[in-house]
Structure prediction request, 572 residues.
Amino acid sequence: MACNDEGGAQVLKTCDLCEKDTDIRYKCMDCNKFLCERCKGIHKNVPTLSLHDICDLKSELLCRVNTKVRMDNIPCNYHKKFQCMFCKDCEVLVCSECISNSHQKHCLESLEKTCEEKLSKLERYKAKIEKDVTCLQKSYGDFAIAKTEWENSLDDIRSKINDKEGELKEAVTKYAAKMRDDVTEKKRDGIEDMLLKQKRCENVEHILNCKLEILNSMQSSAGGEIFEFEQKVLNYQMPCVSESIILRKNIKYLERSTSEETISTLFGSMILLGVPYTMNITIDRSLNTNFSNIENLVVSEGETAWVSTFENNKASVQKMHLTDVFGTVKQLDLHAFDVAFSANNDLIISIESTSEIVRVSLNCEFQSILDLSPFLVKAVHVAKNGDFYIGVRESGDPFEITESSCRKVLVYKSSDGKQTSLTSNVSYEYDQSKQRLFTSPCRITTLSDGDLIIVGDWITHIEGRLVALNRNGDLEWTYNGNSKVNSDTSKFRPYDIVSSPEGYIVVADKNNHALHLLNGAGELIACKLVDEIGITLPKALCFDFWGYLWIGCSTFPEDKSGANIYAVKLGI
Prediction:
């Protein structure tokens, strides 16, 4: 073992006790001191230090020893007593008094085992983060390449624009010169023609004047002259005089428009080509359940999940561990249509076929917080700012629309930030043309704290669409699926929609075993057929604190193995 002196040279480290021996072989993990062989014995013989943990530096277990945590100095949350245990049901530290008061029948675990599991989980997270960092570093390189290619392509376009400008200028100059030469030639030819016709007019005028002169000299009283003058006049050939001796022709310049469209036709234009995005999905974890159908799924930071199911005419909402010790912690006999987490991590549930929305606390106590009679509650979503978005409809056929139908999204705001007092003064039902926005608003998510509201609108039992509104309720866009995967037998229906940490919209398309990824403008970024990687019938979606997408699936009728829950990482 060596260290640097002030000059940068390497010197051997000495024992922290004797400060002489450089043969360092041990480390006291409690004192954080390095020891030689002799001082190790001295250290252990001191009564007050005899229980200290001394590690052999050559041991392969050093890394594990380095993470060893003292358990005797961790107090419980309420009584501040030591020598605690961990209540897995409530996810809190408990002392003996806590256990006797309110945790008698709960699942308890030693702190050593709990810490070991949490350290193991943190090590997994560390490995994942390191992997993500590596991916990001690669992405930086890809960004640099893409940036260079983008800049080069635009520079190339600029160069072509300059070349086209010069080409068009030269062509316009040549064409203008040609038109000017044509004008000069037409002017010369026209003048020559007019001079010739002018000469002809002068000749005709001379003949006519001669005739007039003869006729003017005739004496009307002399009868003999009449016959003589008639013969003289008739001997002159009478010229043909027309009123249109000069042809009335004219030339007009038909000027072309110099609009942007006309210029674009000659000049050319830029087209932004669609980038062939792909969605890479890496499965991090796969958990098999005893359910045939995962209706809803939300995951907390502590790697526990609330899962709602409905099968064999029995509904439940279950709190489950998503660790290696996979299983149900708590079960509530509720039929959830939709679920969400509130700002303070309470579970919010819209109860199927009722007007009621309930809140379930961390210790699994639940209470009704809204009754929206006479409407039936459908979608429930809590935005990051704490606002509630609730889809409702009147009772009756969910897909039959009549004049008295009411299908809308209500927005409830919390006055205290804890959802103990909710008020609503905003609702969305019609667009600006007084057309209905929804058939049955069954799923909702938001972007930018409600600046964009995306509603999963179920049109029939097998078909649906996305409807996006701005905060004013104006229709921004609709999305009816990807024509490359939709068909008459497998229509697009958004069984669940969530917003990613990056601001994308992810849609579960169970009918087509697909995930759709859209941006805030409603443009399809990517569509992934997840059955290619073994994920079938994706139905429930949520993102966890670490950015992993959790997917709850259904099963085929003949499949008795149970539905799977997956944790995946999305990459674009």
Summary: The chain has six helices and 32 strands. The domain at 280-571 is CATH 2.120.10.30 (Neuraminidase). The two ends are 46 Å apart (CA to CA).
